[in-house]
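Re: weekly structure request thread

Next one in the queue (1031 aa):
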Amino acid sequence: MTSPSRRTLAHALRALAMDAVQQASSGHPGMPMGMADIAEALWRHHLKHDPATSDWADRDRFVLSNGHGSMLLYGLLHLSGYDLSIDDLKAFRQLHSRTPGHPELGYTPGVETTTGPLGQGIANAVGMALAEQLLAAEFNRPGHAVIDHRTWAFLGDGCLMEGVSHEACALAGTWGLGKLTAFWDDNGISIDGHVEGWFSEDIPGRFEACGWHVVRGVDGHDSAALDAAISQAKAETARPTLICCRTTIGFGSPNKAGTHDSHGAPLGAAEIAATKAALGWAHGPFEIPDDVRAGWDAREQGQAARSDWQRRFDAYAAAHPGLAAELERRLAGDLPEGFAALAERAVAEAAERAATVASRKASQESIAAFAPALPELLGGSADLTGSNLTNWPGCVSVTPERLRAGLGGNYLHYGVREFGMAAIMNGVSLHGGFRVFGGTFLMFSEYARNALRMAALMKQPVIQVFTHDSIGLGEDGPTHQPVEQTATLRLIPNMDIWRPCDAVETRAAWAAALQSTAHPTCLILSRQNLAHQPRDAAQIAAVARGGYVLLPAEGEAQGLRPQLVLVATGSEVQLAVQAREQLAARGVRARVVSLPSLFAFKAQDAAWREAVLPAGVPRVAVEAGATSGWREIVGLDGAVVGLDSFGESAPAPALFQHFGITAEAVAAAGLRVLGLDSPLKAVARHGQQIWLDQLSRTLVASGALQRWIDEHGIAGVTSNPAIFAQAFASDTAYAPALAQLRAEEPDLERRFERLAVADVQAACDVLRPLHERTAGDAGFVSFEVSPRLSRDGAGTLAAARRLWAEIGRANAMIKVPATPECLDAIADAVADGININVTLIFSPRQLLQVFEACALGLRKRQERGLPVDRVRSVASLFVSRVDTLVDRLLPAGSEALRGEVGIANARNAYALWLDRFGGSEFAGLRAAGARAPSCLWASTGVKNPAWRDTRYVEALIGPDTVDTVPDATMAAFAGHGQAARTLDTALPEARATLAAAARCGIDLDLLGEQLEAEGLAQFEQAFERLMAAVA
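Done, posted below.
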């Protein structure tokens, strides 16, 4: 039988590529068809490999840098005898197949690296060739060349357009990697067409300038020329070789060869048939004749080569048993025996030293601690050794001179080539025998980003040392100050990111990185010094978990649950520690969690994660970088202190202050999350709503009302004639509308109402989101009927109905007086579904009457078959006015009662409310969703300047109540008020105060009638001033 020709054997690769791409309906047939002859020359005549043992240590490495032509590699592996069946080829580009669209490490035996992003494959090949040369220098001995293999790479025009190829190939030339050979598929075609318009440089000249041996002008379809070129490459031992192969993309296709039409799409059934006919390939899809298979089968030759090497290695092991054992350990990727214990001791030593140093310096000290035990450590930096601090005592630089002399080293100077460095490191790791790390500024990780991603995709345990991690680097300014880099690195799947807070965490981060086996690690390190954080033994051990409790909240040891969790990384952990102290001074129990590695923390069991970040406890995160990623930790209700803008050029301390990344900012964020940033917000935690006792056009239009809501948790607004009289007198915003109304509306009351109703509507609209969010429990705006109707129940009801309809807002509330004449009007208004604010209540008797009127209205409404769940009413009990009158009437010797009766009266009112609405009498309405009328504390401004200006607010804080506060008192409480539940904590004392007042002749029911009359008179006077103001 005549053996098939070399061209026929190459046609087998072409046919498989055409068939597989056609069956998948996608792929790139052109490159495999164009490079098939080159592949045949290399794989059948020069490549040292064993299909039965694809991980043989001394095999040649083959890299398909132009990975889009993956069917060329799959065809080679299948035909050579690797464990890749014809059915695997038929499943090209299908889900979970062993033949993905681009070669992927771990899916297919014989694939050395994942390629596809152009240019990185050749950079990986540089790393592999470097690793071979360094291992040979370290382990080979005279007569024992156990590390002696070559690295081959296919690359296309696209690879050479990518800048990473310039970076890596320049280093390959400088290092003189004589066992690296690259085949340039010079077909002149890329996706957009013929490349002359965008790729015209002298590639052979460029490589020669980089120190490569270049074989020019090789016909990529001439086997003899290819053999000769490869022989030249093998003969060159001091320089890498580029073989320039002129090829035709889509070789053999009658209509698509030499065009971009064959580059990235199936040829089509008709064109495949025509191509096979032109090539003389008379076989169906995926059919390979036996003689062709036999011509490609490399198993016997590969087994012989591997067996020969094994015999030589056994002789080496006999002569140098220690070296042989060490080489086997390193090629297997195993750490030295006992390394875990050594790492534990190293972390403990860092804790004992308790050094305050920059984490980049702590990193250098960690390298120095681990390097003596790890001869496989291969470090380096992209021209920033003195800044990254990636060198260590005893490290030896890899230089061209040493490499030419057959010597190695363990420290690489990559020059300013971050992308090339990262891709070369991937190649070194893929080759095996080293634990590789490299350094640059975190900002410049952007240059290397795709190589970092590829390391994660390939599960390579490379280590990136990224220093100068934030605005903390200072004066170099925003071009060098990372903002989004750490956050976006965390988004890369299978990438561990450590941002340690001190030397202990830095040591632990290095220990974790060195012990990782299936993922890369980025160490995010500071330029500035970081304070040592004390820890006990359990906490030191817990650092490795990625997140742990650094400082428990006060009282946790006694079983108290923290009120807040502060989560931080890196330099901001110290800020969290300081913020915890500030919060403790405010009575807030805050826990500090250091979270140096979210990747490691998320790998912990649920019990650990819950123990560190307990559910239901609010969280604040702080990191000097982009904030959005932290929402995963703090949730939508938490807070993040960070930086979402570019930095500035200034000393680091000034920048942290300027951008608000301070302990004070963290503490303030914690208070906001807890609703304690304003004492007024803190009141809400005790179940009380604070309403602003003021309304004006400017209050709404200026945004001041919205700010009160946002910053202080204001939940409603009240108004009365006195408030509007003051507003009309002082607020110039009314002038245009008032001038128009004077011409249009002769009735003064209607003129006033038309002005005021617009304000009420605007305020209702501002408060509507709160009203809706609370299902109608908050967000009300109260407007009073004319005081002229206070003794006219029917008129009051008619006015309430008219104003309710005119305002037209579900969160409006109509204010009516608690006069006996208006009690029926109150009940009927509630029955109509009108929200009612009953005002001018001073005594227990009045209060109970109002309670009954409101309850009656709800019953009437229920009897009519109408819903009762959205009708709200409040009973406004005046406080300070009671004290003002009572204090004048108290006899001498009763000074202890001064200023106390009004508070006691309000507390007693709350007790009456509990009795009236807390039991079975209201149960039926409650079951239907009705809300009992709430007690509202009115007149809470302090009249006596000798008293604390917030005393009435502070004394009456309790659940299911409202406090309507004038703006001056509101501002005072916002500044220095103390929020604590006081309303029902001393009810017996309140009753005792009232009993003592009664013994002094104080009859609150009688005084209530007097105060009601005085109040009505004052409101009527204010109303008359209003009429004069709008006249």
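DSSP finds 44 helices and 28 strands in the chain. The mean pLDDT is 96.
Next request, please.
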